[in-house]
Records
---
Amino acid sequence: MGAVGLGCMPMSWAYSTSQQRGDRSLRTVHAALDAGVHLLDTADMYGPFTNELLVGRALKGRRSDAFLSTKCGLLVGDQHIVANGRPGYVRRACDASLRRLQTDVIDLYQLHRADPEVPVEETWGAMADLVTAGKVRSLGLCAVGARAARRPGSRMHDGTIRQLERVQQVFPVSAVEAELSVWSPEALDQLLPWCTARGVGLLAAMPLGNGYLTGTLKPGQGFEPDDPRARHPRFTAEMMAANQPVVAGLRRIAERHGATPAQVALAWVLRQGRYVVPVPGAKQERWAVENAGAADLVLTDRDVAEIAGLPRARGSWD
């Protein structure tokens, strides 16, 4: 794939909500498209619904410029998020996403999370029917959360691979979305080899470490109450300070190339293989353009060795 995508979630949900501006977000999407970004990633739960509406407005007159990915399978309540994989719901969710996105077809339709009350094969079968109906071009699966797999003796992506093996019997998987970054490389161990062996794309979520790998966040700076980083174990003041050597290493490499730490972090993800696409989030035009520029940064063997030698990122569970 060899390019950088754009995660649209931060534009209207979760991160620093006081800084979210509709007009600025529209300009950000347009700037990303102008800079050569094609993959736009959203979901019906972001907002909920408002992120798809935003992307739909941004793509008015520019639909052919974008490879459009959205997700279904999670419902957002006042204080909770629940999975819904019932086939009837999947069909209704797709129709609603098409209306909000103002398009006739979704390029990649992803299952955000499997419903524990519904066999994943039934959910996936309903999604496959959407391909047959011409409403969707391909199907993807989001990786099971890391916390769900932290059982004694288990590896992080065991659950995801079990799901992939099951749904692959129903209809081909085109892409898997999972966290992959300099400070969270676990997908390289098991998940990426599975994808590469089958020609399945890996959408690298959070390739900038929720913003930390950009070098713009400072230990103890604090986050807005509804920002998930306010509760993330790697974003306590203590852990942000402890992980500064990771950012310092990226900055040293960036200086040699006349680049930024964020571009180095994204270039590292791109180097992991032709099927890998980093999908960083961005709320501002300059960040979207900077991220897109990472596709032109070629890391040397020395750079890669230095990154491999960086300290392992720490969290409050360590």
---
Amino acid sequence: MTNDNWFIAAGSRPEAGWTDVVDGRVAGWAHTGLRTGTLRDGGELRLPADAVERLVVPLAGSFTVAYDDTTQVLEGRASVFEGPTDVLYVGSGTAATITGTGRVAVAEAPTETVKPSTYIARRDVPVELRGAGQSSRQVHNFGTPAALDAVKFIVCEVITPAGNWSSYPPHKHDTTVPGAESNLEEIYYYEAAVSRGVADIAPEAADPFALHRTYASDDRAIDEFRQVRTGDIALVPYGWHGPAVAAPGYDMYYLNVMAGPDPERVWNITDDPAHGWVRQAWASEQLDPRLPYEKESSR
């Protein structure tokens, strides 16, 4: 069944200057959080000293983050379709203030454990080109266990060229099976834009969008099929999820935040057995030649 708790339309949960805030106050939600906000010259966004770890992710623009007695400049990027950005991990219990110009996201996960705050430069972000053919996409793994020493969350972002399918085959991570499957709720923050290959012919009336799908994997009812646009947030508490589809003419981006009750911070998944075989077909297909999306590429 469709549940309005699992879809946050852009701007529908504003708080203290933030465009949207998703946290444990959403019914049925417990392990992850997300803040998104827009700053103009002279403005600031504040992060309270709560018991949550955070990852500050520039979406568009550059920012300065002041915390403890430290100031960290984030170079950022012009848009999410320009490849990876530098990011800042801020340990639990740390207050911070963000200034600058542009759009910023902050991934969160509740934890009392304190890890040291860490800056990851753009050049150090692991970039993965995943899938093949129309399942080709680009993954920036700046908040995965291999790249970041965090406590609970796993954070990454994905660029999917127009017409391609992402988060595919559909999969789940809603049951603890040691060594095989993790129990992780997941946030998808979406953006969509006219594809860089056709931007010069798109009319002003163009309305970039993508599609998101979540459906039941057991007796817990869920049935979400949403058209998503820039700023929309889809929540996956459990169930099969995927595909996320980039409509022809429109590139798709999403930021993923995952965490759960398991003691081990690991992303183990189970494919929907009706569709998992598709991975084998990638061996005979080529990677989409439009990838990678990089900073020097123009829209």
---
Amino acid sequence: MLNARIKLRHLQAFLEVARQRSFARAAERLAITQPGISKTIRELEESLGASLFERTPQGVALTQAGLTLLRHAGPAMRALEEGVAAVGDTHRGDRWLRVGALSTVESQLLPEAIRRWHAEPDGQNEVGVNVVTGSSAFLLSRLRRGELDLVVGRMTEAREIRDLAFEHLYYEPLLLCVRSGHPLAGTAPLEAARLGDFPWVLPPPQTTLRQQVDSFCVRHSLTLMSQRLETLSLPISRRYTLESDAIWVAPEEAIAEDVSVGRLCRLAIDLEAQGGSVGLCFNASMEASLAREAFCEVLREVSAGRGSGSRAR
């Protein structure tokens, strides 16, 4: 039985501090004072007999006890919110599927899956899809807290995947590409040393995709020039590459159409020996909805229809 001293406000405050990693920002989001939220967390810690947060130079971090509580409190709070929302939405028929999307599936897989899902004649067109984009660390943390139904993309290298369930769909390589007419376009064989003479468009530091780039640079003793663009935005990356001499580190599906019509060219050097595993990630502690299961089946069907060049290597 839940400790009677633990109230809903305690859990709300705990989850917001864990999300913001700051008492001040959490207090602002909850529209209460900082002393007020500190008192609320202290009451929760006293009820549990454990410290939930520790101070760090960057703010506050969860203790092991805090991580344990987060793993259970996040999905529980989300389930409660969904229950309350469901009661209010029954008469309107409002339903939503919350999907986290990594850049590796934004261009083809996810849009095609959503299109097919909404086109099916079984009522799925009445379910809205809310797509959240970002880094694997950001999306997986939201999935763990119960704020997303699933995350789709290349993420097996992410530390945050830990106790989440992952289902492999196919392998997706990162490629080095440039605009048509670039000085390196069509050069084969291509020496890695020449890559350091041009700007790069690459994933930001501390992302799983960036780890592959850093590994490539170490293997080839390559130092990148300081003039570079770091972003996960595919539209920004594409436009910058098309209008400059930059080398873009891009997911294969993001450049397939431009390569097929000659706007972009793939460089004759491999960034990685095998692509990363693209798949579906779930929070096993959350009950699977019929909508999620139906959408995942469509994702599997779309993945199975991909060309062999993008699949297991």
